Amino acid sequence: MANLRDLKKEIDYRLEEFVFDCEMAIYFQPSKEEDVVAIMEKAVALRNALYVNANNPTEPHNASLVKKYYAAMRRDMVSSFGSLFEELSSLNGK
What we know:
The termini are far apart. This protein is mainly α. It contains three helices and no strands.
């Protein structure tokens, strides 16, 4: 990880991309707006949780553990946003 600022920018970027996809889903299928908005709320909650985790590493004085913590957090972020994208795709497939 380069630094905390880059990690936070990546979190925001992933959220922006997800919200854009949600807006497109609402545009093409307005009847599913409530379901899409519920998924968007999950994404915002995920973003907030990731920010809290990014600002509070478990062992801030041990560089090796901090590096492992942020690597695990990045993996968790990728999988969490991936599952949200899958949920959105399954909603649009119905």
